[in-house]
Design brief:
- The complex is a heterotrimer of chains A (447), B (290) and C (323).
- Helix content of chain A is 46%, strand content 12%.
- Chain A is α/β, with parallel strands linked by helices.
- Chain A is globular, with a radius of gyration of 23 Å.
- Chain B is an all-alpha fold and 290 residues long.
- Chain B is 71% helix and 0% strand.
- Chain B has helices at residues 16-39, 44-49, 61-107, 113-125, 132-141, 149-155, 159-172, 175-183, 188-216, 220-225, 234-243, 254-274, 276-285.
- In chain B, helix 3 packs across helix 12 (254-274).
- Chain C has 323 residues and is mostly helical.
- Helices cover 70% and strands 2% of the residues of chain C.
- The chains are: A alpha/beta (447), B mainly alpha (290), C mainly alpha (323).
- The A-B interface holds A 59, 61-63, 84-89, 91, 94-95, 98-99, 101-105, 161, 163, 264-266, 269-270, 273-274, 283, 285-286, 289, 292-293, 295-296, 319-321 and B 44-45, 47-49, 133, 136-137, 140-141, 145-146, 223-224, 227-229, 240, 243-252, 254.
Chain lengths: 447, 290, 323
């Protein structure tokens, strides 16, 4: 017995209807400038919605949201934005998923991390923003973030921040051990051994197994373990890129050269401040975290490009979010207009002021931003390194359409390899098997 | 009938050895609380750099409290008020319902009475967290999610309280008294409110105590049911602050989490100490036997 | 017959035992007619509780039971009726049994330790051999007032092997115990749970002890019974009902173990698997994997297992009381 549940079916019909409406609008004003995506008519809808006013709800945990909403409401007094911090990360997604499943109670606009976007976009929970002509903003964003807000053929958000990875390192610790900044991963491993030998309580970096880090590292190595095309999903955690990464990282894990302090815990913050952790590869948003929460590290830390496998610059994205409009929204035009303002127009300014790392090309090239000397990093112009990194992101990466689930069970599988200090391949294989099984159960056809 | 005056018969000698042994136990109990109090006096930087069971460089207790109470426009006070609301209505209601039902089960023999206990015990055994989704969807259909009712209604049920009141009422309320009241023409409900409640008072205090604690500590249900932080109780709010330390937008506020935890515990502890005489007398009343 | 006033938890608890002993006997001194007259009026009092209970417990359970018969694909919106397939899956699911065995281990080790400590504490405080016994009673009970969330937060900080109390202790004794590592995690969780609930159970036992009439002690003393003998032959038997009910609720609590591992998971996601306890498993199936149907099945199976075990313990307890 196979039935399509009523709510989903209705949503499908609504989607189709919406698409048809958009098409007819297109047809109706076919005299436009032609070749475009029909943006005029729909973009005008957004302006009209802003003019008309109304209330929308916005779920986010970004620190800049308060200032942004205040500025927006000042500019458009008729629009009221109800700002809700429903939780950080998984708590937020749980609530979002609950509201979606219940069919109501969700926000109009929600923050969605790039890795989570396909999970919400593919089942039709988010609105395709190309109907409002957002496609034409493509050149305004870095290619990697622009790719991240797409799922299938749809455009489901505008990038807010980006996280091209760089190597943050404690200059003081490196000097103590008379080490230069590693350019390749090989040098990195050598440095790791030196540090461990000379001071066993220190370590080159911490890694107790973290799905976000693992995926980013595979990304940097050129791996594409996840490929999704509609219902067809390919998972290959033994591809060349993955092997390249485990080739290096296994040495660190098996020889216990890395600290096993889990990230984002109190101990981790302490260890970053007191020199226990000598370096860490993080997204470009990290300087804000250091400045705010690792006060003891002031003056010690520096930023360098990611070590690579062949010495040629290459990096990956790590973290970063977009804002999406929910299919549930009763006022999608206004919600979309808010997103446009937030991540394309005036909203970027308060975002930058709060210390965010943008995804917009213009801001990434703005000399005032790029050449800024940062006291925390000993006056280093860190954004030069980071904005360079933004142009060096390896192409072709995709997240799974069920990446949040994959992250959840990462600890059950890959985490075990970390626990036993054994080759990561075993854990990655187990992860792959679990993901294939889950995907098949959920109706994907997985290879 | 003998009333026990001393703690135990024949007032034995006090034993320093036993006292020392129990003191060790006390240390175990108190160490985490001492840690919490000490930590609440530290700045975030000191939390990272000073030993756990010692003071930090600065004494930041009062500034921590001020910051906790004013952070994000004083949302902590809002959470405190919410918690109080949930406790007063939820635990109060739970006590009333459990008392009435316990009394009804103890003093009336009606069909299905025996099934009730089995059903309640059976239902309690099904893990609530695993039922979160069905409960959420049901409440959502009723329009209750993200309202205070989503928290209050489920807190109205205290199976343990019902059980206690049941066995307690069986003995504490003499059938003769009920019969006399009925002969006087009093209705059943009136008898309950004018005669029975007074007789059950010590039991009610105990049930209330347990209900207050469990509502005060309620965490999972609000976590699932509420998405609006303005409705959060303290427990969920504090965990949210704690989770803030994660990810690209990390803003750890460990000093506020610690101070907030202390402020969350404090009212309950103070209530326990102030009400000690009350529940103590409830306890010693227990020694009145036939 | 009982007089007014009366005890608290204690009395209820001793009543359970007495109920066992007098099982089958009419409890009312005037049986028969008066009961039947009041028959339905009992519902006035039980009704409100049952109504709310039905809404918050029975309906979700019923809904979960319904859900457990289907299998849905969250991403494609299809739902399929599968009969009892989900149940078959649960019974052959290694992860489910892994978690279940873990809570059984926890049950067999932690519950006796916790109840034993609580029992000893209650006996010692009741013995009047302590200085400042009411202070002890209050302080030992205090952790119960600490929200589980806060308790885990506190212990989590202290368990840290780099900066926490664990680090200081390891330095002191030259050991290298990592409370949050794979081998120690379950013990660490057991410690938190024990810390939280020892006082609570102590209070239940203590108030049950308070219901033992002085005459009995006096008689025992006249017979020349020493302190130990008094404990063994008077106090422990008097506590049997209390121990029984504390055990049953501890069993239920153990099978539902969730808050502690779930919060510690944020510190050590690789040690605490998504199926560390059955309840955590059900939660992660729902909220991590959107496998609502399977999750509902796990919940129902867990509920049945818990109920059976709790019932068996109760049956055994009452039978012993009847000896």
């Amino acid at each position: 017995m196979l039935i399509i549940s009523g709510r989903r079916a209705r949503r499908r019909i609504a989607l189709v209807a919406a698409a048809l409406t958009a098409a007819s609008v297109l047809a109706g004003c076919g005299s436009g400038d032609g070749g475009g995506s029909g943006s005029e008519g729909s973009a005008a809808d957004l302006d009209a919605a802003l003019e008309k006013g109304g209330t929308i709800t916005y779920w986010t945990w970004t620190p800049s949201a308060e200032a942004q909403v205040a500025a927006f409401e000042k500019q458009y007094p008729k629009v009221k934005v109800k700002l809700v911090n429903a939780g950080t990360g998984n708590d937020h997604y749980t609530k979002l998923q609950n509201a979606i499943k219940a069919g109501s109670g969700g926000p109009d606009v929600a923050q969605v991390e790039y890795k989570a976007l396909p999970q919400f976009a593919l089942p039709g929970d988010l609105i395709d923003l190309s109907q409002y002509g957002f496609d034409e903003f493509e050149s305004d964003y870095t290619p990697s973030t622009w790719a991240s807000v797409h799922a299938g053929d749809g455009l489901y958000g505008l990038p807010q921040d980006s996280g091209p990875m760089a190597l943050f390192y404690n200059q003081q610790v490196f000097d103590e051990h008379k080490l230069g900044v590693p350019k390749t991963w090989e040098e990195y491993v050598t440095a790791a051994r030196t540090i461990k030998k000379e001071n066993p309580s220190q370590c080159i970096t911490n890694d107790s197994g973290d799905p976000g880090f693992t995926t980013s590292m595979i990304w940097q190595a050129g791996g594409t373990p996840f490929q999704a095309d509609g219902e067809k999903v390919t998972i290959d955690l033994q591809d060349d890129g993955t092997k390249k990464w485990t080739g290096v990282w296994d040495q660190l894990v098996e020889d216990q050269l890395v600290c096993t302090i889990p990230g984002w815990t109190e101990e981790w913050y302490k260890a970053l401040g007191d020199g226990t952790i000598a370096s860490i590869a993080l997204g470009a948003w990290a300087p804000g975290v250091f400045e705010q929460s690792v006060p003891d590290g002031a003056g010690k830390w520096r930023v360098a490009p990611m070590p690579t496998y062949d010495g040629q610059p290459a990096t990956a994205e790590n973290g970063g979010s977009t804002q999406s409009v929910l299919e549930q929204s009763k006022n999608p035009a206004l919600a979309a207009a808010f997103v446009r303002w937030l991540n394309h127009d005036e909203g970027i300014k308060p975002f930058l002021e709060s210390g965010g790392f943008p995804a917009t090309v213009a801001d990434l090239q703005d000399p005032a931003f790029v050449d800024k000397k940062v006291d925390y990093f000993g006056g280093q112009q860190v954004n030069q390194v980071l904005t360079d990194a933004a142009t060096q992101v390896v192409e072709g990466w995709q997240y799974l359409p069920y990446q949040l689930y994959a992250d959840t069970i990462y600890g059950d599988t890959v985490g075990k390899s970390y626990q036993t200090h054994s080759a990561l391949e075993g854990g990655l294989t187990a992860w792959q098997e679990a993901l294939v099984k889950y995907g098949d159960q959920q109706g994907f056809s997985v290879n | 009938m003998t009333r026990r005056v001393s703690t135990s018969p024949l007032a034995p000698r006090r034993s320093p050895v036993l006292t020392v042994l129990m003191a060790l136990f006390l240390v175990y109990t108190l160490v985490p609380l001492v840690w919490l109090i000490l930590s609440a006096t530290k700045t975030q930087a000191d939390l990272f750099s000073s030993p756990g069971l010692w003071v930090g460089d600065q004494f930041a207790f009062f500034s921590n409290i001020r910051e906790t109470l004013t952070y994000r426009d004083g949302i902590f006070l809002r959470w405190l008020a919410n918690t109080l609301l949930y406790v007063v209505v939820g635990a109060g209601g739970a006590t009333l319902l459990a008392t009435a039902a316990g009394y009804g089960l103890a003093k009336y023999r009606f069909p299905g009475r025996r099934v009730v206990f089995a059903v309640i015990l059976g239902a309690v055994a099904v893990p609530g967290t695993a039922l979160a989704v069905p409960t959420f969807l049901m409440f959502s259909n009723m329009g209750l999610t993200n309202t205070v009712w989503a928290i209050i209604i489920p807190s109205l049920i205290s199976p343990f309280g019902l059980y206690l009141m049941w066995v307690y009422a069986a003995d504490a309320v003499p059938d003769e008294l009920l019969e006399a009241a009925r002969i006087d023409g009093a209705g059943e409900v009136r008898i309950f409110f004018t005669v029975v409640l007074r007789l059950l008072a010590p039991g009610i205090v105990t049930v209330l105590l347990f209900a207050v604690v469990s509502t005060w500590n309620n965490y999972f249900l609000p976590l699932i049911m509420l998405s609006e932080p303005k409705l959060y109780p303290l427990t969920v709010g504090l965990t949210q602050w704690s989770a803030q330390a994660t990810g690209a937008n990390a803003q750890p506020v460990y000093n506020l989490v610690v101070t907030g935890s202390l402020l969350t515990i404090a009212p309950l502890v103070i209530a326990f100490i102030l009400l000690q005489r009350f529940w103590q007398s409830g306890l010693s009343a227990g020694s009145v036997k036939q | 017959m009982a007089v007014k006033g009366g005890g608290t938890v204690s009395q209820g608890v001793t009543q359970l035992e007495r109920r066992g002993e007098t099982r089958g006997g009419a409890r009312s001194p005037v049986p028969g007619r008066r009961w039947s007259r009041s028959d339905t009026k009992g519902w006035i009092f039980v009704g409100p509780f049952l109504a709310v209970f039905a809404l918050t417990f029975l309906a979700p359970i019923g809904y979960a039971a319904y859900l457990s018969l289907f299998r849905a694909q969250a991403f494609f919106g299809t739902t399929e009726f599968v009969g009892l397939d989900n149940y078959v899956d649960v019974f052959t699911d290694d992860k489910f049994w892994d978690g279940s065995l873990r809570v059984v281990l926890f049950l067999v080790v932690q519950v006796p330790i916790m109840l034993g400590l609580a029992l000893v504490a209650a006996l010692v405080i009741d013995s009047a051999r302590l200085y400042a016994s009411s202070f002890f009673r209050l302080v030992i009970f205090l952790p119960y007032a600490v929200p589980g969330v806060v308790a885990v937060l506190m212990w989590g900080f202290m368990y840290g092997t780099n900066f926490g109390l664990a680090a200081d202790l390891n330095d002191l004794f030259g050991t290298s115990i990592a409370p949050l590592s794979k081998n120690w995690m379950l013990a660490s969780i057991a410690n938190i749970v024990t810390w939280e609930f020892v006082g609570y159970n102590m209070l239940i036992f203590y108030s049950a002890l308070r219901t033992v009439p002085d005459d009995i002690y006096e008689a025992a003393a006249l017979d020349g019974a020493g302190a130990l003998r008094t404990v063994l032959s008077i106090k422990i038997p008097a506590l049997r009902g209390a121990i029984l009910i504390a055990t049953i609720f501890s069993i239920i609590g153990t099978f539902q173990l969730f808050n502690e591992p779930n919060i510690l998971r944020t510190l050590e996601p690789n040690v605490i698997t998504t199926y560390y306890t059955p309840n955590l498993y059900a939660y992660n199936l729902s909220f991590g994997g959107q496998q609502y149907n399977y999750s509902a099945t796990v919940a129902i199976v867990m509920g049945l297992l818990t109920a059976v075990i709790a019932y068996a313990v109760q049956l055994r307890g009452t039978r012993e009381a009847m000896k």
